[in-house]
Amino acid sequence: MPEPYSDQGTTAWPPVAVPGQPGRTTAETSQATDGPAQPSPPDERCPEDERSDFAPERCPETEQPDPEPTRGSELLDELREQIAKFVILPSEQALDAVTLWVAATHLQPAWQHAPRLAVVGPAKRCGKSRLLDVLTETVHEPMLTINTTPAAVFRSITEEPPTLLVDEADTIFGTPKQAEKNEEMRGLLNAGHQRNRYVTRVVGNDHTPHRFATFAMAAIAGIGDLPDTIMDRSVVIRMRRRAEGETVRPFRSRRDIPSLHDLRNRIAIWARPLLDEAADLEPTMPVEDRAADTWEPLVIVADLAAGTWPRRARTACEQMVSAEAAAEEDHPSGARILADIRRVFVAQREVDSLSTEDLIHHLRQDPESPWAEWGRSGLSPRDLGSLLRQFGIKPGNVRIADGTQRKGYMRNKFLDPWRRYCPTVHPVDTAPTLPQD
């Protein structure tokens, strides 16, 4: 077991570069790392080339070479290989992401945000628990939270936090009743994503208020999606059952744990001297906002390791965040209702308003949408109002095309939510829009 981080003089958390604030960049700090930093992507687009001996997304004429690999790159390659022995991940990008997440747990004192790893699947036997078995033996200070109370968890978190591992999360958040019962655990997992978010409890016989830290990286596995607030703070790994012909090595504790512990210790030894370096880096990210906060530690680890990892980390980040954004838009409780209403207004030639009855009729006509089978008898006016209320849209008296006045929705009330929650232009959304009121 490696020595704790404190022997490097990091008992106080080092200052971290905050996105949007001046700070040292990857290029500025490359001389202090084991290898050169990931170069900035070229501005020039790949020219047309009649040859077909390279992938279209990579252009040999304009692409700068990967930085020289370091000891860290070799360790990440070895860790990736070990994970792939026991678990089949849904994609190469997901395997890269899990590898980087494990390595990032050994640098937790450097991070501003503690990314969650949401390991979810549609059914049993998708490899979720087996992945957690491997994570338990490779992450920094694993803390299994089976039958552990939230109070015990936050009392175990220090300035050098453990890595929380939560299995069978569907038994905690699977039903509204379960979620309500475990609201404190959900709040703990949400708060712990960002540094300096505390819970206050009274302790001792004199009931003295005391602040407890919540900041810690966490891997959470379960059937079905986790609560939206947790998924939004996670690197999401969507597991699936092995197909015929896909094989993995059985995990045997006596045989496999010693080698995984040896690898874990070597990763910790490599990472420990880089704490201050990691804290100061502010890498170029392919995503923004909370997704950038969540993925930044993984990208920094990749930049420190160099080799192919900086490019692969950014590819995994961009593709996996895009996939989750598309899934969110398709979810009825998310932006799906807004996107479908936009299609209705486009199909109706951008009329100023639609009655509630007409809008619901058009929504239920789409055979690929969930609205015809929503609830007991399809989407109702009350259901529609409930879905739109979270976006600040309410029905009112509107004048429709035949000159009558009825309950309905005005198009201009949707303009701002459309711009914020579903900015992607769909093929049907090509009609010119009216000027904003």
TrEMBL record:
Residues 42-61 have a biased composition (Basic and acidic residues). InterPro entries: DUF3631. Residues 238-421 form the DUF3631 domain. Signal peptide: none annotated. Residues 23-33 have a biased composition (Polar residues). Residues 1-72 are annotated as: Disordered. It holds the Pfam family DUF3631. This is DUF3631 domain-containing protein. It comes from Streptomyces wedmorensis.
